[in-house]
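F.,

This is the one I mentioned.
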């Protein structure tokens, strides 16, 4: 039997945490102290007990300043926001109503919204409570349904007005109302002992109509629960396209009843049934997201050829690819049987996937199997086809009418660009922004993926700086209109299911802003502040991008103290790009390497330089100096804790030895520099040279991880070495 007093205490504790969370959201405090003093224990001291939390002050515009006052915690930033005096109180009686149009999609979305408000505030809000528009706390005023399924032409604009008595979302279609509800969910703030929505008028519309996320489920199969959780999170940040990469050399992932060997022999039994596909399409559509299928051809097609080797350009036999990279397997474009097969396949898949576009891939064909096949070479000479690029262009010209015959518009990567293809196709640029410019200058519609590859492990600010139409763009007005949008890409080579969320989030929330918000929204510091709030909202939706790290570290530690591991992972990041050489990555590589426990972007990337700069501004002040010295001592203690740990835990941890040793060397350099600067002294040339050599050695990666604190230490060193 439950202890009532315990439950009462637990309820009060949870309410307090929610209030602090929402207060921090409202004041913009979250993220500003990343890697700050609160995360660095004093050297040699246990963490102190938490102190009582004073009552939360009233949150108002007067508590905010600068960018925070303009953007609060909205991500993406709306097209226009006017903050007003006052607020709408949130309480357990909060209810909602519809004006004009009402349908199943809106009912489900409003129920989800009210349920989320209840979770985030702890209020017992009835998610099914409906009222009359005149008296409701929230009114959704939608003028019409819009398209039955999401489409490129949807009107997603909305206005959101919040006053002391009522909040009202007005939109032309259901899709605009869906976006407005997501904005409303980012606005609750703690005020005193309660919660409010700040008074405002928001008039919003997307910058681009195509705002996509590619998820590669071929290299590593992602369970349906991962796919749906990703869709839920995408909707929260106003993405509207889910680009589903469903076939590649490592697996074919969709049930085909016309061609059952595609999954029977090409999937290892890991695929989605047609019923699951239909359910997922409906799930996405309810959230205003289109599902764009991609079946890669003629290259990246080994998994096709395992079951149907006659499609291939080599004699076979073919086997599912286990390693990653570019493989030789490629469809034979010279046989009529290839096109008969594809026509049958298109007939089935275009019926299954209702979107207007059908992505045929078309990238990274190395042409090897075409070059060594004498019959194909003879065909090329007979038809005056100069090279394998032109042969692929012929293949694309043959399949485009087949796709069109089944009511779809063909889409592919930039390699398909060819003047003989109709301008109705869509071309996706994956190599550069200039490649996108070339696409639209040739009269085609284009979207940009270059610069948004999440698997490259870039920090959020690097993605955020990429604009499909930069200020110096050579495009004229009509060409700019053909830039339809952008896609973030989560390629799956290094992403087993357990680590999917941490590879995508929260960086994809910042990328969403580049796709939705006006191009003038570029404040990086404010982006990071709001991205931290977005991270907490993602956890409310079930994302494991943070919690998964603790689970992995506990597995590594095998019941031992995880603190030495946590100290290291806070100071490192994965190597960038595809420079990952420490282990033989393939489809069977288990997620039991420290690499998988480290997020793409460490808080230390920005937090440690802030600590350094705070000290350099006031080198004689005690607090900044002590914070740095405590951090350096913490690094050295971590190495001491790691040494007994590694003897009793998995051998994978042995690969971390160079990083711990380097971090200890860095701590010594940092301590020397801080003490010298604080004392008004300077390092001798010999001391400075020795310190530079230590930092240079510390830049070497190990276990596909690299120390991210080196730049801040170099700043300290150069100040200490000044003459």
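My design for it:
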């Amino acid at each position: 039997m439950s202890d009532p007093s315990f439950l009462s205490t637990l309820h009060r504790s949870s309410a307090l945490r929610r209030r602090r969370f929402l207060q921090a959201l409202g004041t913009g405090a979250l993220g500003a102290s990343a890697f700050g003093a609160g995360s660095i224990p004093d050297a040699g001291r246990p963490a102190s007990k938490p102190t009582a939390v004073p009552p939360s002050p009233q949150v108002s515009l007067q508590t905010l300043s600068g960018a925070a006052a303009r953007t609060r915690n909205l991500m993406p930033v709306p097209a226009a926001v006017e903050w007003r005096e006052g607020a709408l109180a949130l309480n357990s009686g909060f209810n909602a109503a519809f004006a004009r149009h009402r349908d199943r999609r809106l009912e489900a979305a409003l129920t989800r919204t009210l349920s989320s408000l209840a979770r985030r505030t702890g209020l017992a809000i009835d998610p099914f409570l409906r009222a009359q528009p005149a008296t409701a706390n929230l009114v959704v005023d939608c003028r019409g349904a819009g398209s039955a399924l999401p489409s490129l032409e949807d009107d997603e604009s909305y206005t959101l007005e919040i006053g002391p008595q009522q909040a009202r979302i007005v939109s032309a279609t259901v899709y605009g109302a869906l976006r407005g509800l997501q904005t409303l969910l980012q606005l609750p703030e703690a005020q005193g002992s309660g919660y409010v929505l700040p008074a405002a008028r928001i008039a919003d519309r997307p910058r681009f109509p195509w705002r996509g996320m590619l998820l590669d489920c071929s290299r590593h199969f992602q369970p349906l629960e991962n796919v749906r959780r990703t869709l839920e999170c995408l909707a929260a940040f106003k993405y509207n396209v889910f680009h589903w990469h469903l076939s590649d050399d490592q697996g074919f992932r969709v049930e085909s009843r016309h061609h059952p060997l595609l999954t029977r022999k090409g999937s290892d039994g890991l695929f989605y049934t047609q019923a699951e596909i239909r359910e997922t399409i409906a799930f996405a559509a309810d959230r205003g997201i289109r599902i764009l299928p991609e079946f890669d051809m003629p290259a990246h097609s080994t998994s096709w050829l395992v079951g149907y080797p006659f499609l291939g350009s080599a004699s076979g036999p073919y086997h599912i690819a286990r390693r990653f990279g570019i493989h030789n397997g490629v469809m034979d474009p010279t046989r009529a049987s290839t096109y008969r097969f594809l026509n049958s396949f298109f007939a089935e898949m275009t019926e299954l996937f209702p979107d207007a576009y059908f992505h045929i891939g078309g990238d990274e064909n190395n042409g090897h199997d075409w070059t060594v096949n004498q019959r194909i070479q003879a065909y090329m000479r007979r038809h005056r086809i100069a090279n394998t690029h032109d042969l692929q262009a012929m293949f694309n010209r043959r399949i485009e009418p087949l796709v069109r015959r089944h009511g779809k518009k063909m889409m592919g990567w930039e390699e398909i660009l060819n003047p003989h293809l109709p301008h109705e196709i869509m071309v996706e640029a994956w190599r550069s922004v200039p490649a996108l410019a070339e696409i639209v200058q040739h009269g085609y519609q284009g979207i940009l993926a270059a610069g948004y590859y999440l698997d490259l492990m870039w920090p959020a600010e690097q993605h955020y700086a990429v604009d499909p139409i930069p200020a110096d763009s050579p495009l004229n007005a009509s060409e700019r209109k053909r830039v339809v949008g952008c896609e973030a890409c989560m390629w799956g080579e290094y992403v087993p299911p357990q680590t999917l969320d941490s590879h995508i989030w929260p960086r994809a929330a910042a990328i969403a802003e580049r796709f939705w918000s006006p191009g003038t929204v570029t404040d990086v510091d404010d982006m990071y502040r709001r991205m931290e709030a977005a991270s907490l909202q993602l956890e409310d939706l079930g994302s494991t991008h943070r919690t998964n790290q603790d689970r992995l570290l506990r597995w590594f530690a095998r019941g031992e103290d995880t603190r030495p591991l946590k100290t290291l992972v806070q100071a490192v990041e994965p190597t960038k790009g595809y420079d990952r050489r420490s282990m033989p990555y393939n489809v069977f590589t288990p997620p039991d390497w420290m690499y998988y426990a480290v997020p793409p972007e460490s808080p230390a990337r920005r937090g440690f330089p802030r600590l350094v700069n705070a000290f350099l501004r006031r080198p004689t002040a005690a607090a900044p100096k002590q914070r740095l010295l405590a951090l350096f001592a913490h690094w050295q203690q971590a190495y001491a804790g790691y040494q007994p740990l590694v003897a009793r835990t998995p051998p994978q941890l042995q690969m971390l030895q160079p990083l711990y040793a380097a971090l200890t060397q860095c701590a010594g350099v940092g301590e020397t520099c801080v003490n010298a600067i604080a004392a008004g002294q300077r390092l001798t040339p010999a001391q400075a040279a020795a310190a530079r050599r230590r930092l240079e050695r510390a830049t070497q990666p190990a276990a596909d991880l690299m120390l991210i604190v080196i730049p801040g230490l170099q700043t300290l060193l150069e100040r200490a070495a000044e003459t």
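The chain has three domains: 4-41+58-204, 210-540, 547-720.

Talk soon.
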